[in-house]
Design brief:
With about 650 residues, the chain is of the alpha/beta class. About 40% of the residues lie in helices and about 20% in strands. The relative contact order is 0.08.
């Protein structure tokens, strides 16, 4: 699209001034901002930032949940030719230091006291950070810090500037070009420092428009914006596509109210990583555990029909009249109420991305009539590389290349992409840029995969993570850890899994139990426990997890290529993997290398044949305190199965 974000906003304000642009739930009531109101707000914020000294190409960090005035702030920065950099609102203060200094940030616009406190804590380490504005004044009335002020004060200053110089804002917006830098997103940094991914107005809006065309999106869509704005997936769906389509973005009151808000909004266009869909399914299964025996039997009988018939109906494949009738009855009794309970009854298109989704999880949602599809992309590609067409959603692919995208495979099996949505560069990191961008415009994704006969892309794993079993009965077999982990995580009792096996003679795994699901399971069996660590080491819980692991192994045995990746030994970790402890990224991707280093004694115990192993681990608590968790972890064996090929 040959335009810019601020121009699109002004176009909507001119064409549809009274239409809703944003909604925010505040004190239980949805408040609406129209396109005309948004245009006024952006104008005032931009003029206020100019008064404060913001110049073209300056960088501004934006930190907080999805909030209308933070969205408007990003538009205001872009209106002046500045570059907004959204950062993760749940990051520790120390995680802000590198992005702020690397990008030479002088201005910050944040949501509330929590984010202000983080920035004040690191201010001495970030000497360039001169001005901080906060949206929510609660708790900040008595703060007296140089350069600290409210967004309200910024708006007031901007309104005065706009009155004095009526043509300033429009002139600044007119200066911007599609190839100008529009935003920077810092990667999650699974290894080393994060890298600043630089995108232009053109690269982001071209991909937003490609997604709009592909799924026939319009201004009639409703979106719930509840994932971190710093994650490019959320940013594309609730910012770039919001402006490309002109639909309504709804901002929940808080993380605690998302489930309620989801039901109230009833989005038509929904996007979430697999872990959100896993969590929703886990909540369903927990409720079914508490249901009467009759309701449980009805649920499982209807779900058997759904798994057999639902995906075919959604894909437009022929279904017998009897099966269609059974599914319709199931829809009246179970699937319809379930969609409504999940808040997904109005969804026309739902996407999942970020990592692979388990095939059983994927099939579950499509079985009950939710048009869940997969997409493929990354921060560097502005998300949209491959999308699944309606009626062609397969659990084992991520779709076909969309408008403007070319894909080819390197000899190593790595996927290379050429697209109008590719990053301009990694900020101040030409060496890293040269590693991923070839001279003729191909981007190295780092993923291993292939195109199937129907032109759909299949992802095996991260290219660097795909390994081989060495020694033992499965010598030479492929090992794809993420594939194994995703299969394990389908089970509602398993929240996270980390598989090991590259250059080893067998596969072993760490398991994190899902505290809600396993806690509910334990309480129904009168099994007492004193917190996560105690529950995780109960013999009954180990038997429960062993059943899940062995079911996963039986499934892996059906795949001749990955049958050697069956888990032979496992342990249940004494603590949940946590981004604050350096074990996961802020997008909840496992930092495999960091976990291997941190828990090497446990890995050695798994492969050394031990029955248990003591460990003490340093942890960070939510209130910032440090402490430690220790336990003697049991190590269990799991049954494996001979490899077999599925019948043709």
């Amino acid at each position: 699209m040959q335009t810019t974000f601020p121009r699109l906003m002004l176009d909507h304000a001119k064409a549809r001034p009274d239409a809703a642009a944003l909604r925010e739930k505040s004190y239980g009531i949805w408040q609406t901002t129209t396109w005309a109101q948004l245009a006024v707000l952006v104008r005032q914020l931009a003029c206020g930032l100019a008064e404060a000294g913001l110049k073209r190409d300056d960088h501004v960090i934006v930190v907080g949940d999805n909030r209308p005035r933070l969205y408007a702030s990003m538009l205001a920065v872009q209106s002046l030719g500045g570059v907004p950099i959204p950062l993760y609102q749940d990051a520790a203060s120390t995680e802000f230091v590198f992005p702020i200094n690397n990008a030479e940030v002088g201005f910050a616009i944040v949501e509330n006291q929590e984010q202000v406190d983080k920035l004040l804590e690191i201010r001495e380490q970030c000497p360039g950070l001169g001005r901080i504005w906060f949206d929510d004044p609660r708790g900040l009335r008595k703060y007296d810090e140089p350069g600290l002020a409210s967004v309200d004060a910024l708006i007031e200053s901007g309104a005065a500037r706009a009155q004095r110089d009526a043509g300033f804002f429009d002139a600044e917006v007119a200066r911007a070009q599609p190839q100008d830098v529009a935003a920077m997103f810092f990667t999650s940094g699974t290894t080393g420092n994060p890298k600043g991914v630089v995108h232009t107005h053109f690269s982001l809006l071209d991909r937003a428009d490609a997604g709009k065309t592909f799924d026939k999106l319009s201004s009639a869509e409703e979106v719930l914006a509840y994932m971190p704005p710093a994650w490019i997936g959320q940013n594309i769906f609730s910012y770039a596509q919001w402006l490309a389509c002109g639909y309504i973005v709804n901002c929940p009151e808080s993380a605690a109210t998302v489930t309620i808000d989801l039901k109230e909004v009833g989005p038509t266009y929904y996007f979430a990583p697999p872990r959100i869909f896993e969590g929703l399914l886990t909540s369903v299964m927990i409720r079914m555990e508490d249901a009467s025996p009759l309701k449980r039997r009805l649920f499982h009988a209807c779900m058997d029909v759904a798994r057999r018939v639902g995906p075919a109906l959604l894909d437009g494949r022929p279904v017998s009249l009897l099966d269609r009738l059974k599914w319709t009855l199931g829809d009246l009794a179970i699937y319809g109420p379930l969609r409504n309970s999940l808040g997904l009854s109005r969804v026309r298109v739902a996407y999942t991305a970020g990592e692979a989704i388990g095939p059983d999880l994927f099939t579950f949602y499509r079985s009950i009539g939710i048009n869940l599809k997969q997409l493929y992309g990354s921060t560097e590609t502005a998300v949209f590389v491959c999308l699944q067409p309606d009626h062609e959603a397969h659990a084992d692919t991520v779709g076909v290349p969309v408008q403007g995208v070319e894909i080819k495979l390197a000899e190593s099996g790595e996927i290379l992409v050429k697209s109008p949505g590719l990053l301009k560069e990694y900020y101040k990191n030409p060496a890293a840029t040269a590693e991923v961008l070839t001279a003729d415009g191909w981007y190295h994704t780092g993923d291993a995969g292939f195109l199937d006969a129907g032109g759909h892309l299949k992802i095996i794993d991260r290219a660097k993570d795909v390994g081989r079993i060495v020694g033992g009965p499965n010598d030479g077999a492929m090992f794809a850890p993420k594939y194994v982990e995703n299969k394990l995580k389908f089970f509602p009792y398993i929240k996270e899994a980390v598989a090991f096996g590259d250059k080893r003679d067998r596969v072993c795994a760490f398991i994190n139990i899902d505290m809600d699901a396993v806690g509910n399971w334990a309480e129904k069996r009168n099994l007492g426990y004193a917190g996560y660590t105690d529950l995780a080491q109960k013999p009954e819980v180990y038997e429960l997890i062993r059943e899940c692991v062995e079911k996963c192994n039986a499934d892996l045995a059906q795949d001749a290529l990955l049958a050697g990746s069956q888990v032979t030994r496992f342990l249940v970790l004494h603590k949940e993997l946590d981004a604050d402890d350096g074990e996961m990224t802020r997008t909840r991707k496992v930092k495999r290398g960091a976990i291997l280093d941190k828990y090497l004694v446990l890995v050695d115990a798994l492969y050394g044949g031990k029955a248990e192993q003591y460990i003490e681990t340093a942890v960070k608590f939510e209130d910032g305190r440090s402490g430690s968790v220790s336990a003697t972890l049991k190590i269990a064996d799991a049954k494996t199965f001979p490899a077999m090929k599925k019948a043709a």
